[in-house]
Amino acid sequence: MLTYISFRKLFVLIALICLPGVIVPQINKNELYKTIQFLASKELDGRLAGSQGYTKAADFIAGELTKLNLKPAGDDKYFQKLKIEYNEILAPEHFSAIKNGITIPYQIGPDYVYRGFTGAGKLTAPVVFCGYGIDQPEFGYNDYAGMDVKDKVVMVFRYNPIWNVKPFINGNPREKAIVAAKNGAVGILFVSFPNDPDPQKPIGSFIHGNGEQMLNFPEIHIALNIASDLFDGSGHTLKELQFLIDSTKTPFSLPLNNKVDLEVHTKYQKEREVVNVIGILEGCDPVLKDSFLVLGAHLDHVGSQAGKIFFPGANDNASGDAALLQIARTFVHSKDGPKYSIAFVFFAGEEQGLNGSKYFVSHIPSIIHRIKYMFNFDCVRFGDSIQVNGGKSFPDLWNICKEIDQKNDKLLVAKSGEGGGADADPFFQKGIKTLYFVSTNSYKHLYQITDPETINKDLLVSITKLGYKTSKYLTSTPLISPLDSH
Question: Does one domain contain both 137 and 120?
Protein backbone atom coordinates (compact mmCIF):
# COMPACT_ATOMS: atom_id res chain seq x y z
CA MET A 1 0.00 0.00 0.00
CA LEU A 2 1.38 3.43 -1.00
CA THR A 3 1.23 5.59 2.11
CA TYR A 4 0.89 9.39 2.07
CA ILE A 5 4.51 9.79 3.20
CA SER A 6 5.93 7.43 0.56
CA PHE A 7 3.75 9.06 -2.11
CA ARG A 8 5.01 12.49 -1.08
CA LYS A 9 8.64 11.34 -1.26
CA LEU A 10 8.00 9.85 -4.70
CA PHE A 11 6.40 13.08 -5.88
CA VAL A 12 9.27 15.23 -4.65
CA LEU A 13 11.76 12.90 -6.34
CA ILE A 14 9.90 13.15 -9.65
CA ALA A 15 9.73 16.93 -9.31
CA LEU A 16 13.47 17.15 -8.73
CA ILE A 17 14.21 14.98 -11.74
CA CYS A 18 12.09 17.31 -13.83
CA LEU A 19 13.83 20.45 -12.63
CA PRO A 20 16.19 20.82 -15.61
CA GLY A 21 13.15 21.32 -17.86
CA VAL A 22 12.02 24.40 -15.94
CA ILE A 23 12.54 27.56 -17.98
CA VAL A 24 14.33 30.12 -15.82
CA PRO A 25 14.57 33.78 -16.82
CA GLN A 26 18.09 35.13 -17.11
CA ILE A 27 19.64 36.57 -13.94
CA ASN A 28 20.92 39.97 -15.02
CA LYS A 29 24.56 40.37 -13.91
CA ASN A 30 24.65 44.08 -14.78
CA GLU A 31 21.53 44.83 -12.71
CA LEU A 32 23.02 42.96 -9.77
CA TYR A 33 26.25 44.92 -9.93
CA LYS A 34 24.49 48.24 -10.49
CA THR A 35 22.45 47.72 -7.31
CA ILE A 36 25.58 46.93 -5.31
CA GLN A 37 27.39 49.98 -6.67
CA PHE A 38 24.60 52.29 -5.56
CA LEU A 39 24.07 50.75 -2.12
CA ALA A 40 27.83 50.74 -1.45
CA SER A 41 28.37 54.29 -2.74
CA LYS A 42 29.62 57.26 -0.72
CA GLU A 43 26.19 58.83 -1.22
CA LEU A 44 24.74 56.24 1.16
CA ASP A 45 27.68 56.63 3.56
CA GLY A 46 27.69 53.07 4.87
CA ARG A 47 23.92 52.71 5.42
CA LEU A 48 24.01 52.93 9.21
CA ALA A 49 20.48 52.05 10.36
CA GLY A 50 18.78 55.33 11.26
CA SER A 51 21.08 57.53 9.17
CA GLN A 52 20.25 59.56 6.08
CA GLY A 53 22.20 57.04 4.03
CA TYR A 54 20.04 54.19 5.29
CA THR A 55 16.88 56.18 4.55
CA LYS A 56 18.08 56.68 0.96
CA ALA A 57 18.72 52.95 0.67
CA ALA A 58 15.25 52.12 2.01
CA ASP A 59 13.64 54.63 -0.37
CA PHE A 60 15.56 53.10 -3.27
CA ILE A 61 14.39 49.58 -2.44
CA ALA A 62 10.79 50.77 -2.00
CA GLY A 63 11.00 52.47 -5.39
CA GLU A 64 12.20 49.26 -7.03
CA LEU A 65 9.42 47.24 -5.38
CA THR A 66 6.94 49.81 -6.67
CA LYS A 67 8.25 49.36 -10.23
CA LEU A 68 7.64 45.62 -9.84
CA ASN A 69 4.07 46.23 -8.61
CA LEU A 70 4.69 44.25 -5.45
CA LYS A 71 2.12 44.79 -2.71
CA PRO A 72 3.23 46.98 0.21
CA ALA A 73 3.23 45.12 3.51
CA GLY A 74 4.39 47.66 6.06
CA ASP A 75 2.43 49.93 8.36
CA ASP A 76 3.45 52.81 6.06
CA LYS A 77 3.27 51.46 2.52
CA TYR A 78 6.43 49.34 2.09
CA PHE A 79 7.90 50.42 5.45
CA GLN A 80 7.58 48.56 8.72
CA LYS A 81 8.70 50.94 11.46
CA LEU A 82 10.74 49.97 14.51
CA LYS A 83 13.13 51.67 16.92
CA ILE A 84 16.76 50.91 17.66
CA GLU A 85 19.76 52.44 19.43
CA TYR A 86 21.67 54.95 17.34
CA ASN A 87 25.19 56.35 17.63
CA GLU A 88 26.86 58.63 15.10
CA ILE A 89 30.61 59.31 15.24
CA LEU A 90 31.35 62.97 14.53
CA ALA A 91 34.30 65.25 13.82
CA PRO A 92 36.70 66.43 15.07
CA GLU A 93 38.61 63.33 16.00
CA HIS A 94 42.22 62.24 16.39
CA PHE A 95 44.24 59.49 18.02
CA SER A 96 47.97 59.50 18.82
CA ALA A 97 50.51 57.75 21.01
CA ILE A 98 52.98 59.68 23.11
CA LYS A 99 56.35 57.89 23.44
CA ASN A 100 59.23 59.52 25.28
CA GLY A 101 57.50 62.84 24.92
CA ILE A 102 57.13 62.43 21.15
CA THR A 103 53.63 62.36 19.63
CA ILE A 104 52.98 59.68 17.01
CA PRO A 105 49.77 60.41 15.06
CA TYR A 106 47.80 57.57 13.53
CA GLN A 107 45.39 57.32 10.61
CA ILE A 108 41.77 56.39 11.14
CA GLY A 109 40.91 53.33 9.07
CA PRO A 110 44.18 51.39 8.70
CA ASP A 111 45.50 52.16 12.20
CA TYR A 112 42.39 52.43 14.32
CA VAL A 113 38.60 52.44 14.14
CA TYR A 114 36.07 53.54 16.74
CA ARG A 115 33.61 50.97 17.99
CA GLY A 116 30.14 51.73 16.74
CA PHE A 117 28.90 52.55 20.22
CA THR A 118 31.94 54.46 21.38
CA GLY A 119 31.32 57.28 23.79
CA ALA A 120 32.73 60.77 23.31
CA GLY A 121 35.91 62.01 24.94
CA LYS A 122 38.93 64.28 24.76
CA LEU A 123 41.84 63.15 26.91
CA THR A 124 45.51 62.40 27.35
CA ALA A 125 46.18 59.44 29.65
CA PRO A 126 48.59 56.59 30.46
CA VAL A 127 47.81 53.10 29.18
CA VAL A 128 47.50 49.92 31.22
CA PHE A 129 47.36 46.48 29.63
CA CYS A 130 44.61 44.39 31.27
CA GLY A 131 44.61 41.15 29.32
CA TYR A 132 41.10 40.04 28.47
CA GLY A 133 39.49 42.84 30.47
CA ILE A 134 37.72 40.34 32.72
CA ASP A 135 36.82 41.05 36.34
CA GLN A 136 35.15 37.91 37.65
CA PRO A 137 36.73 36.78 40.91
CA GLU A 138 33.78 34.40 41.39
CA PHE A 139 35.31 32.42 38.51
CA GLY A 140 38.80 32.83 39.95
CA TYR A 141 39.89 35.26 37.25
CA ASN A 142 40.48 39.03 37.43
CA ASP A 143 42.63 40.97 34.96
CA TYR A 144 42.23 44.09 37.11
CA ALA A 145 43.49 42.59 40.38
CA GLY A 146 46.24 44.78 41.82
CA MET A 147 46.15 47.19 38.87
CA ASP A 148 45.65 50.94 39.23
CA VAL A 149 43.63 52.02 36.18
CA LYS A 150 42.04 55.14 37.67
CA ASP A 151 42.04 57.95 35.08
CA LYS A 152 43.90 55.69 32.66
CA VAL A 153 43.06 54.02 29.36
CA VAL A 154 43.07 50.22 29.39
CA MET A 155 44.13 48.00 26.52
CA VAL A 156 42.36 44.62 26.35
CA PHE A 157 41.88 41.81 23.87
CA ARG A 158 38.74 42.29 21.81
CA TYR A 159 37.49 38.76 22.41
CA ASN A 160 37.30 36.50 25.44
CA PRO A 161 39.62 33.48 25.76
CA ILE A 162 38.44 30.21 24.25
CA TRP A 163 40.00 28.11 27.02
CA ASN A 164 37.74 29.08 29.92
CA VAL A 165 35.79 26.23 31.49
CA LYS A 166 32.95 28.44 32.65
CA PRO A 167 31.89 31.02 30.08
CA PHE A 168 33.00 34.48 31.19
CA ILE A 169 30.34 37.13 30.93
CA ASN A 170 31.20 40.64 29.77
CA GLY A 171 32.64 39.44 26.47
CA ASN A 172 31.26 42.16 24.19
CA PRO A 173 32.76 45.64 23.79
CA ARG A 174 30.17 47.58 25.79
CA GLU A 175 30.33 45.03 28.57
CA LYS A 176 34.14 45.16 28.71
CA ALA A 177 34.00 48.96 28.63
CA ILE A 178 31.59 49.02 31.58
CA VAL A 179 33.93 46.75 33.57
CA ALA A 180 36.87 49.04 32.76
CA ALA A 181 34.91 52.13 33.82
CA LYS A 182 33.88 50.52 37.10
CA ASN A 183 37.58 49.99 37.83
CA GLY A 184 38.24 53.70 37.21
CA ALA A 185 39.40 53.76 33.58
CA VAL A 186 38.48 56.66 31.27
CA GLY A 187 38.68 54.81 27.95
CA ILE A 188 39.36 51.42 26.39
CA LEU A 189 41.52 50.17 23.51
CA PHE A 190 40.57 46.85 21.93
CA VAL A 191 43.29 44.83 20.24
CA SER A 192 43.13 41.66 18.15
CA PHE A 193 44.98 38.45 19.00
CA PRO A 194 48.55 38.87 17.66
CA ASN A 195 49.15 35.11 17.70
CA ASP A 196 46.31 34.33 15.31
CA PRO A 197 47.48 33.08 11.87
CA ASP A 198 45.83 36.13 10.29
CA PRO A 199 45.20 38.70 13.05
CA GLN A 200 42.02 40.71 12.63
CA LYS A 201 42.45 44.28 11.45
CA PRO A 202 40.50 47.12 13.09
CA ILE A 203 36.88 46.85 12.05
CA GLY A 204 33.81 49.03 12.20
CA SER A 205 31.19 47.13 14.16
CA PHE A 206 28.03 47.87 16.14
CA ILE A 207 27.88 44.64 18.11
CA HIS A 208 27.81 45.96 21.67
CA GLY A 209 26.41 43.59 24.29
CA ASN A 210 24.41 44.31 27.42
CA GLY A 211 24.29 47.47 29.50
CA GLU A 212 23.59 51.15 29.10
CA GLN A 213 25.52 53.35 26.74
CA MET A 214 28.38 55.26 28.39
CA LEU A 215 28.22 58.64 26.71
CA ASN A 216 31.71 59.80 27.70
CA PHE A 217 33.83 56.67 27.45
CA PRO A 218 35.80 56.22 24.18
CA GLU A 219 36.04 52.72 22.71
CA ILE A 220 38.65 52.19 19.99
CA HIS A 221 39.86 49.13 18.09
CA ILE A 222 43.58 49.63 17.43
CA ALA A 223 45.91 47.88 15.00
CA LEU A 224 48.81 45.77 16.22
CA ASN A 225 51.34 48.41 15.17
CA ILE A 226 49.81 50.85 17.70
CA ALA A 227 49.84 48.18 20.41
CA SER A 228 53.51 47.57 19.64
CA ASP A 229 54.28 51.29 20.02
CA LEU A 230 52.46 51.42 23.35
CA PHE A 231 54.27 48.30 24.63
CA ASP A 232 57.65 49.82 23.76
CA GLY A 233 59.82 50.05 26.88
CA SER A 234 57.65 47.68 28.95
CA GLY A 235 60.02 44.73 28.65
CA HIS A 236 57.25 42.64 27.08
CA THR A 237 55.41 42.23 23.80
CA LEU A 238 51.72 41.67 23.20
CA LYS A 239 52.46 38.35 21.47
CA GLU A 240 54.46 37.17 24.48
CA LEU A 241 51.72 38.11 26.94
CA GLN A 242 48.94 36.50 24.93
CA PHE A 243 50.92 33.25 24.90
CA LEU A 244 51.70 33.54 28.60
CA ILE A 245 48.10 34.26 29.65
CA ASP A 246 46.66 31.55 27.40
CA SER A 247 49.17 28.89 28.40
CA THR A 248 48.87 29.50 32.15
CA LYS A 249 45.22 30.62 32.16
CA THR A 250 46.38 33.30 34.58
CA PRO A 251 46.15 37.10 34.23
CA PHE A 252 49.30 39.05 33.43
CA SER A 253 48.45 42.75 33.43
CA LEU A 254 50.91 45.62 33.59
CA PRO A 255 51.14 49.40 33.22
CA LEU A 256 52.73 50.58 30.00
CA ASN A 257 55.23 53.42 29.80
CA ASN A 258 53.41 55.35 27.11
CA LYS A 259 50.30 57.50 26.79
CA VAL A 260 47.55 58.11 24.27
CA ASP A 261 46.02 61.40 23.21
CA LEU A 262 42.59 61.21 21.66
CA GLU A 263 39.42 63.08 20.81
CA VAL A 264 36.08 61.81 19.51
CA HIS A 265 32.55 63.23 19.43
CA THR A 266 29.27 61.37 19.12
CA LYS A 267 25.54 61.80 18.69
CA TYR A 268 23.68 59.12 20.62
CA GLN A 269 19.96 58.32 20.74
CA LYS A 270 18.48 55.59 22.90
CA GLU A 271 15.67 55.14 20.37
CA ARG A 272 15.67 56.12 16.72
CA GLU A 273 13.13 55.10 14.12
CA VAL A 274 14.23 52.84 11.28
CA VAL A 275 12.31 50.70 8.79
CA ASN A 276 12.20 47.23 7.36
CA VAL A 277 11.18 47.30 3.68
CA ILE A 278 8.61 44.66 2.69
CA GLY A 279 6.99 43.79 -0.63
CA ILE A 280 4.62 40.93 -1.42
CA LEU A 281 4.34 38.90 -4.60
CA GLU A 282 0.95 37.26 -4.25
CA GLY A 283 0.61 33.65 -5.33
CA CYS A 284 -1.65 32.88 -8.29
CA ASP A 285 -3.43 29.92 -6.68
CA PRO A 286 -6.53 31.05 -4.78
CA VAL A 287 -5.96 28.53 -1.98
CA LEU A 288 -2.18 28.10 -1.85
CA LYS A 289 -1.46 31.84 -1.85
CA ASP A 290 -2.18 31.95 1.89
CA SER A 291 1.15 30.16 2.49
CA PHE A 292 4.33 32.24 2.32
CA LEU A 293 7.99 31.91 1.58
CA VAL A 294 9.96 34.81 3.12
CA LEU A 295 13.11 35.85 1.26
CA GLY A 296 15.25 38.21 3.33
CA ALA A 297 18.46 40.23 3.40
CA HIS A 298 19.59 42.99 5.72
CA LEU A 299 19.87 46.48 4.24
CA ASP A 300 22.02 48.17 6.89
CA HIS A 301 25.78 48.29 7.40
CA VAL A 302 27.97 50.18 9.89
CA GLY A 303 28.06 53.70 8.49
CA SER A 304 30.92 56.21 8.59
CA GLN A 305 33.22 57.85 11.13
CA ALA A 306 33.87 61.56 11.62
CA GLY A 307 33.44 62.33 7.93
CA LYS A 308 36.82 60.72 7.22
CA ILE A 309 36.02 57.11 6.40
CA PHE A 310 32.95 55.07 5.55
CA PHE A 311 32.34 51.34 5.40
CA PRO A 312 30.66 50.55 2.05
CA GLY A 313 29.26 47.16 3.01
CA ALA A 314 29.36 45.97 -0.59
CA ASN A 315 29.59 42.33 0.44
CA ASP A 316 27.81 42.81 3.78
CA ASN A 317 25.19 43.19 2.66
CA ALA A 318 24.60 45.16 -0.53
CA SER A 319 25.29 41.85 -2.27
CA GLY A 320 22.43 40.10 -0.47
CA ASP A 321 20.10 43.03 -1.15
CA ALA A 322 21.02 42.98 -4.84
CA ALA A 323 20.44 39.22 -5.02
CA LEU A 324 17.07 39.55 -3.28
CA LEU A 325 15.96 42.40 -5.54
CA GLN A 326 17.08 40.48 -8.62
CA ILE A 327 15.14 37.39 -7.49
CA ALA A 328 12.04 39.58 -7.12
CA ARG A 329 12.56 40.98 -10.64
CA THR A 330 13.04 37.50 -12.06
CA PHE A 331 9.84 36.22 -10.45
CA VAL A 332 7.85 39.18 -11.75
CA HIS A 333 9.22 38.78 -15.29
CA SER A 334 8.63 35.02 -15.30
CA LYS A 335 5.78 33.85 -17.51
CA ASP A 336 4.36 31.64 -14.77
CA GLY A 337 4.08 33.19 -11.34
CA PRO A 338 4.39 31.31 -8.04
CA LYS A 339 1.34 29.49 -6.70
CA TYR A 340 2.37 30.37 -3.17
CA SER A 341 3.04 33.92 -2.03
CA ILE A 342 6.49 35.38 -1.44
CA ALA A 343 7.45 38.16 0.97
CA PHE A 344 10.63 40.05 0.07
CA VAL A 345 11.98 41.62 3.27
CA PHE A 346 14.94 44.00 3.59
CA PHE A 347 15.81 44.12 7.30
CA ALA A 348 17.11 47.05 9.36
CA GLY A 349 19.51 46.87 12.30
CA GLU A 350 21.07 43.46 11.65
CA GLU A 351 24.49 44.80 12.57
CA GLN A 352 23.36 45.62 16.11
CA GLY A 353 21.91 42.20 16.75
CA LEU A 354 19.22 41.18 14.23
CA ASN A 355 16.88 43.97 15.33
CA GLY A 356 14.86 44.14 12.12
CA SER A 357 14.32 40.41 11.68
CA LYS A 358 13.47 39.96 15.37
CA TYR A 359 10.92 42.74 15.11
CA PHE A 360 9.44 41.31 11.91
CA VAL A 361 8.98 37.86 13.46
CA SER A 362 7.24 39.33 16.52
CA HIS A 363 5.18 41.81 14.44
CA ILE A 364 4.31 39.92 11.27
CA PRO A 365 2.21 42.17 8.99
CA SER A 366 -1.43 41.13 8.69
CA ILE A 367 -1.12 40.63 4.93
CA ILE A 368 1.33 37.79 5.56
CA HIS A 369 -0.36 34.60 6.74
CA ARG A 370 1.33 31.22 7.13
CA ILE A 371 5.12 31.50 6.82
CA LYS A 372 6.44 28.09 5.84
CA TYR A 373 10.05 28.86 4.92
CA MET A 374 12.60 31.64 5.16
CA PHE A 375 15.69 32.02 2.95
CA ASN A 376 18.34 34.53 4.01
CA PHE A 377 20.96 36.10 1.72
CA ASP A 378 23.99 37.64 3.43
CA CYS A 379 27.52 38.18 2.04
CA VAL A 380 27.16 36.51 -1.35
CA ARG A 381 29.67 38.28 -3.62
CA PHE A 382 33.15 37.43 -2.33
CA GLY A 383 34.71 33.97 -2.22
CA ASP A 384 34.93 30.95 -4.49
CA SER A 385 31.90 28.72 -3.90
CA ILE A 386 28.46 28.56 -2.30
CA GLN A 387 27.50 27.48 1.19
CA VAL A 388 23.88 27.03 2.23
CA ASN A 389 23.48 26.68 5.97
CA GLY A 390 20.53 24.91 7.56
CA GLY A 391 21.24 21.53 5.99
CA LYS A 392 21.87 19.76 9.30
CA SER A 393 18.49 20.85 10.61
CA PHE A 394 16.53 20.56 7.36
CA PRO A 395 18.23 17.99 5.10
CA ASP A 396 15.12 17.59 2.92
CA LEU A 397 15.17 21.28 2.08
CA TRP A 398 18.95 21.38 1.63
CA ASN A 399 18.83 18.36 -0.68
CA ILE A 400 16.43 20.18 -2.99
CA CYS A 401 18.98 22.99 -3.16
CA LYS A 402 21.77 20.49 -3.79
CA GLU A 403 19.87 18.77 -6.61
CA ILE A 404 19.30 22.12 -8.30
CA ASP A 405 22.97 23.05 -7.94
CA GLN A 406 24.09 19.71 -9.41
CA LYS A 407 21.99 20.38 -12.50
CA ASN A 408 23.53 23.82 -12.90
CA ASP A 409 26.78 25.41 -11.67
CA LYS A 410 27.91 22.72 -9.18
CA LEU A 411 29.30 25.27 -6.74
CA LEU A 412 27.54 24.18 -3.54
CA VAL A 413 29.93 22.83 -0.89
CA ALA A 414 28.90 19.87 1.25
CA LYS A 415 29.47 21.77 4.50
CA SER A 416 26.27 23.08 6.06
CA GLY A 417 25.41 24.20 9.57
CA GLU A 418 22.41 24.06 11.83
CA GLY A 419 19.27 26.03 11.01
CA GLY A 420 19.15 29.78 11.49
CA GLY A 421 22.13 32.11 11.53
CA ALA A 422 22.04 35.90 11.00
CA ASP A 423 18.56 37.13 10.04
CA ALA A 424 17.32 33.58 9.55
CA ASP A 425 17.75 32.88 13.24
CA PRO A 426 14.58 34.58 14.59
CA PHE A 427 12.57 32.54 12.07
CA PHE A 428 14.35 29.34 13.04
CA GLN A 429 13.66 30.05 16.71
CA LYS A 430 9.99 30.40 15.83
CA GLY A 431 9.95 26.92 14.26
CA ILE A 432 10.17 27.99 10.62
CA LYS A 433 12.44 26.04 8.28
CA THR A 434 15.33 28.18 7.05
CA LEU A 435 18.18 28.22 4.57
CA TYR A 436 21.02 30.73 4.75
CA PHE A 437 22.78 31.47 1.44
CA VAL A 438 26.35 32.76 1.74
CA SER A 439 29.57 32.53 -0.27
CA THR A 440 32.49 30.57 1.16
CA ASN A 441 35.60 32.46 2.36
CA SER A 442 33.40 35.54 2.38
CA TYR A 443 34.64 37.58 5.32
CA LYS A 444 38.20 38.71 4.54
CA HIS A 445 37.17 42.37 4.13
CA LEU A 446 34.26 42.34 6.57
CA TYR A 447 33.61 45.76 8.19
CA GLN A 448 36.60 47.29 6.44
CA ILE A 449 36.98 50.24 4.08
CA THR A 450 38.57 47.90 1.49
CA ASP A 451 35.29 46.05 1.00
CA PRO A 452 34.27 47.48 -2.42
CA GLU A 453 37.48 46.25 -4.03
CA THR A 454 36.29 42.68 -3.71
CA ILE A 455 33.78 41.02 -5.98
CA ASN A 456 33.23 37.72 -7.75
CA LYS A 457 30.51 38.58 -10.27
CA ASP A 458 30.08 35.05 -11.56
CA LEU A 459 29.71 33.67 -8.04
CA LEU A 460 27.16 36.38 -7.21
CA VAL A 461 25.13 35.39 -10.26
CA SER A 462 25.34 31.69 -9.37
CA ILE A 463 24.13 32.23 -5.80
CA THR A 464 21.30 34.46 -6.99
CA LYS A 465 20.32 31.87 -9.57
CA LEU A 466 20.40 29.06 -7.00
CA GLY A 467 18.28 31.09 -4.60
CA TYR A 468 15.77 31.86 -7.33
CA LYS A 469 15.51 28.30 -8.64
CA THR A 470 15.08 26.84 -5.16
CA SER A 471 12.40 29.44 -4.38
CA LYS A 472 10.76 28.79 -7.74
CA TYR A 473 10.57 25.09 -7.10
CA LEU A 474 9.12 25.45 -3.60
CA THR A 475 6.45 27.96 -4.62
CA SER A 476 5.39 26.38 -7.92
CA THR A 477 4.86 22.70 -7.21
CA PRO A 478 1.10 22.28 -7.67
CA LEU A 479 0.50 19.12 -5.62
CA ILE A 480 1.78 18.02 -2.21
CA SER A 481 4.29 20.89 -2.25
CA PRO A 482 6.80 21.02 0.61
CA LEU A 483 5.25 24.39 1.39
CA ASP A 484 1.96 22.73 2.21
CA SER A 485 3.26 19.62 3.93
CA HIS A 486 3.32 20.62 7.61
Answer: yes
